[in-house]
Model the fold of this input.
Amino acid sequence: MPLGRAVDIIPQARMSGPMPWVIAIMVAMTAIALAAGLALGNAVSSARAEIEGGVTVQIIEPRADIRAAQAARAVKAMKNMPGIAGLRLVPQEELDALIEPWLGTGIAAATGAAIPVPALIDVRLKGPATPAQLAAIGKRVTPVAPSARIDAQSNWLRPVFEAMVSLQWLSIALVALLALALSAAVLLAARSALGANRDTIEIVHLLGGTDAQVARVFQRSIGYDAAGGGTVGLALALVVILSLARRFSGLGAGLVDNGALIWSDWLLLAVVPILATLLAMLTARLTVLHALRRML
Done:
């Protein structure tokens, strides 16, 4: 039988039956999981780059006059240190704004005296904050500000970063599992169609058709269904992703803002239905060829 005249072994209209919709669901879930993993990766990378060289010096002194004097001396001591790109004594107004959501605005009036808040010095290093650099800053600051406490900003968010990386790996695992589920669904559909058309396949072989021609018919049919279902699934995923992005953008949180998808991420999401179609076609072809070798 000539290659271009292979009979249509699976006579069904496109986007009919459950297979295209199963693929649409798989592609939608894959795109959403992939978008979540990419957003988490962007958030972690941006936050790490932003605070990697950050050091915080706190002057923990209850008396305001002594606290202010120690903070001024600490700034002066660190100003000319090598490796420091910049430093800033955080104004009291900014500190009050930071603690206001937790302590409120009427604490001082209720207690009769202001709650002592540590003075805060924001230090920016030229490179990552290392233990040696923290020790060097401590040697400069401690003699002039005995109540100073020095911390690398990256240490504060390390548990958050570790949790976000774990979620990122979880999203990657979900993408892999969904790919396996898609392959399994195509495999079952191909075997079912092959069994339902066994008599037709035998006639095709009697007419001179080869296993490769028969497999190509199944491959093409599955490819059409996968392409249609993948397009629908990607459209559904984009609606969900854009809706979630709009809601998260209203939070105004730094980590959430840093997790915005970039153009390369959107390009990768657009490739998902293409990869799903290729995977479905490859699975169908291998499944049919394997089954024909055992059948005939």
Notes: The chain has eleven helices and four strands. The two ends are 18 Å apart (CA to CA). The mean pLDDT is 79.
